[in-house]
Amino acid sequence: xxxxxxxxxxxxxxxxxxxxxxxxxxxxEEATSTPVVRRLRIVSSAYPDHEAxxxxxxxxxxxxxxxxxxxxxxxxxxxxxxxxHADIDIAAGDFIGDNxxxxxxxxxDAIRPLSGLRTLLSMTxxxxxxxxxxxxxxxxxxxPLSRLLSLRYWPGKA
Length: 158
Prior knowledge:
By secondary structure, the chain is an alpha/beta fold. Helices cover about 40% and strands about 15% of the residues. The protein has two domains: about 35 residues; about 100 residues.
């Protein structure tokens, strides 16, 4: 009787381990897949009818960190955004990942690929939490770095 109970417990543990492996694999594949472009049309009576629509591309919460979001992948995302031919690019949210697993990248390495955005206006927008994280990781080098990359930094209130 005790042996059958032990066998059942072992099978349950093995089954849960297999399930956890499958879920982790599916999650990693989803996290590293090519992002889906979502389109949203906003109509406003305040916008002139005779003007062409303004196309805005938003990259949010990049969390640059290895192995799932290295700077090389951010560069590929920038290429994907450039192929959309947006009028305005906005990079918002957290740029640095802080997971204990994987490679860490400096703020310089994390946002350097964003300098490849090719629109009339590209900007970075940060929340107070993002500002804290940038101060923590990069210290006072962020404003000069933003100027170096021709990006505008707009502190947000999200």
